[in-house]
Each structure stands twice: as C-alpha cells, then as structure tokens.
Amino acid sequence: MIDPAHRPLATAEIGLYHPTFLYESLWDVAVAVLLVWAGSRFALRNGRLFALYVAAYTVGRAWIEALRVDPANHFFGLRLNDWTSLVVFLAAVAFLVLRSPRPEQPSSQATATMPAEP
Question: Could you give the CA distance from residue 109 to residue 113 in angstroms, rounded to a whole number?
C-alpha cells in the first residue's frame, strides 16, 4: 500500500499500483532466454541478434508503459515513450529484414560457362 502522501495526484484515491519494475525485470529475463535460444537456433550474426533484442525489448516496453499512471507527455493520444518504442521497433524489424541472408541464386554467367552435357 502506497502512503497517501506519496501517491500521484491523478490517482490519490488508489493505494495499490502495478509493480512495473517487476514486470520489466521479468520481461528482460524472458527476452534474454529468447536471445539465447534464437542465437543458437538461427545463428544470428552481423547485428541481427542485437536487432532482435531491441525489437523484443520495445514490445515489452510498450506493454509496461500502458500500465503506468505517472504523468508523461502525450502525442496523438499515446505517451511519448510509446512512440519512441514504436519507431525503434520498426527500425529493428527493418534491419532484421534487410540483413536477413538471401538464398543463393545461380547466376546466368555461371550457367553459360558450364559445358554442355553429351
């Protein structure tokens, strides 16, 4: 129970709040497990593992921000922290997509130099 003298003015009648610090800690552990698994399963290299971390962290951050009642700047109905998470998430996903390995395609030059079969 939060002492009434230390409650936010907007919610002075409420004494219990979500422990967002605990939720974020648990989310961070879950992201760490995801990274260990994905790093070994998919061999993410060249910054892709870090981009996965950034994308996963921002998803959790957006969820945690929705639980907060403290004052924050709002822009188009969302907290500024949510907009920041959204932009960073989209950048991380774009990086993952653009840096994903492409399957090898045979070049037309390689097929032209191969000898014809008898």
Answer: 6
Q: Over the stretch 61-97, which tens digit does the pLDDT of each residue have?
A: 999 988 887 778 888 888 898 999 999 999 999 999 9
**Rounded distance between C-alpha atoms, residue 51 and residue 88, angstroms:** 10
What SS3 string covers the chain? CCCHHHCCHHHCCCCCCCCHHHHHHHHHHHHHHHHHHHHHHHCCCCCHHHHHHHHHHHHHHHHHHHHCCCCCCEECCEEHHHHHHHHHHHHHHHHHHHCCCCCCCCCHHHHHHCCCCC
Q: What is the pTM assigned to this prediction?
A: 0.75
Q: Decide the pairing of beta strands 74-75 and 78-79.
A: antiparallel
**Dist. CA 36–CA 42, nearest whole Å:** 10
In sequence order, the 6+-apart residues with CB closer than 8 A to the CB of 53 are 31, 35
Distance CA(55)–CA(40), nearest Å, equals 18
Query: Cα(54)–Cα(95) distance, rounded to whole angstroms?
Result: 11
